């Protein structure tokens, strides 16, 4: 179930994308002041430092995410590791909804499914006719990245945030968890005017990097609750997983 495991890593990144779907607003960088003709000539005003830029963008991200309930998109996911430096590429569709619901439908290179209604997580491999079942909840989804999908927590409280620069149409934000987590850092590439994310990435503790790009984004479209439920077909082998071992 290699593809399904990659889906879980992609989910972490996607949660941050949902948080970054900010509504349009003004830019962050202040225009340099025009110096008066009088002497002595004051120094021109400086553009916001990266820390100020990051704070501005994260505040915008937080505001939009607090108001958002659902996200649907197509995704392209690449996982880069020491064993696969060129990256394993997968594609499919994703749906996320508060509180704690998700559906990752992998289409290529092999179909697989990761779906949760917030209480039970299923990882389904149709080729093997096998489904893994895991009871989940707020305790299981206790990492900072998952808390946003559950509708709790604030990004600035959970992460140390850096921005590369703010004077271009796009900025890359690096989010490092303040508490122990199962990953080293998260990244968001966001539009500096609107705050909307174009891509996300997660770097795990073993140096594996999972990059996710989204397209055909749709917000609050009224998803059917059945989207987040899974019932194994007859003949599918169900494996009960121990939450304590996850």
Describe the protein in words.
There is one protein chain. 19% of the residues lie in helices and 37% in strands. It has 4 helices and 12 strands. The protein has a 12-stranded mixed sheet. A hairpin with a 3-residue loop joins β4 and β5. The longest helix is centred in the N-terminal third of the chain and has 18 residues, at 2-19. The radius of gyration is 20 Å and the shape is globular.
The proportion of residues in beta strands is 35-45%
Q: Write down how many β-strands occur, each being a DSSP E stretch of 2 or more residues.
A: 12
Order of helices and strands: HHEEEEEEHHEEEEEE
Helix/sheet category: alpha+beta
Rg on CA atoms, Å: 20 Å
Shape verdict: globular
Stretches with pLDDT under 50, minimum 5 residues: 3-46, 142-146
User: Cα distance, first to last residue?
Assistant: 15 Å
Question: Helical amount among residues, as a percent range?
Answer: 10-25%
| Discrete helix count | 4
Chain-averaged pLDDT: 75
Strand order of the largest sheet: 7-8-9-10-11-1-2-3-4-5-6-12
The biggest sheet amounts to:
12 strands, mixed
